[in-house]
Amino acid sequence: MTPFGLLTVVWFGNVAHVGQIVTVYLVQSIRCSHSLTSPSCLFCSARGVPLSGHVGFDSMPDQLVNKSVNHGFCFNILCVGETGLGKSTLMDTLFNTKFEGEPTQHNQPGVQLKSNTYELQESNVRLKLTVVNTVGFGDQINKEDSYKSIVEFIDTQFEAYLQEELKIKRTLHSYHDTRIHACLYFIAPTGHSLKSLDLVTMKKLDSKVNIIPIIAKSDAISKSELTKFKIKITSELVSNGVQIYQFPTDDETVAEINSTMNGHLPFAVVGSTEEVKIGNKMVRARQYPWGTVQVENENHCDFVKLREMLIRVNMEDLREQTHTRHYELYRRCKLEEMGFKDTDPDSKPFSLQETYEAKRNEFMGELQKKEEEMRQMFVQRVKEKEAELKEAEKELHEKFDRLKKLHQDEKKKLEDKKKSLDDELNGFKQKKTAAELLQAQTQQAGSSATLKKDKERKK
After folding, report:
1. Which segments carry the region annotation Disordered (predicted)?
2. Alpha helices in 30-179 (DSSP H)
3. At what angle do helices 196-205 and 146-165 cross, to 10 degrees?
């Protein structure tokens, strides 16, 4: 430690004042071995020298800001809610733009998640915004498994990031982070209570994503009903153990506003991209026969509160919570499933190589065990097949013997019949020959009698 400090003094000692500053800084950062201050110790004697002048490390925040601005930011929003609650309209209103998209139908066989990424820029800050919409959510008759597609999608994004983290050659600085940072859960403005589908889905998602519940199309119910509806929703979430995202109050600069806004959850919002002239200026609003609802009027809805909390105040905290809480929970569970732990039973740090070797040996043992089971199963099946083939062969031989015997019997019958027919044919031939002989004799006798009569007549 001492040579390093002395070398540093010599290296930076070209300028006496700067060398003194750097030397004091390095000396103060080195822990001395003396229990008490020793006058003979260089470090003890230098410990009291005050730091003076400007070094420049106070520009670190500016450097980080410039680096972040050059690199750009990404933010991913998951919109969960039934079809027709105005999810796409609210996204257009939040970011003051018109995102491309097609209206969804109500005849989806299941819940499908569609992700669209947009490049936005405000001043000199670039934002890669990803909006994920749940197509067909709540449209099925049986809604029991509606949340599964959403949970699988969130886990898939966590798994993709984890796989990138576990690579030998990582590119996290240029990796497009698709993990969901905020989940806007759209609640239908029924004015009564939460649906079972809403409670089940939020309960399944609260450990995986930052849930911000909002009442969609809040202009559909009166102010008194809306206040009661908010209280009812909050009590139901607490009684069912659903953990929604709470705006952080540990930072003094935003503690007061976040604490106030936590009391306004869930936000009652209205979305619109149409501009209406109110007085001398154009504002975004929804026009009805009975009047006009201004989107950015806090007396009409909580849209401004939502925009302030989601984008202008807590966007970075949402990103941080996603990484430090939800992703870390997924990562820990996944690595524990793979057999990795921080400490062994003796509270000693685990060696990654030892853990890998142990897991590899365990895997190889299981593989050999399965291979032996498959071999035995294969041998057993071969024996069973051989027995089946032998039985089939035996049956074929028996069938062949039966057919052979039947053939011999039929052949013998045919031969006997043929012999009988031959005997009959020989008898017939003999009778025919005798008949022909008799006929010839008769004809000869007749001819002789005729000749004799002719002779007698001539005489």
Report:
1. 440-459
2. 42-46, 60-71, 87-94, 146-165
3. 10
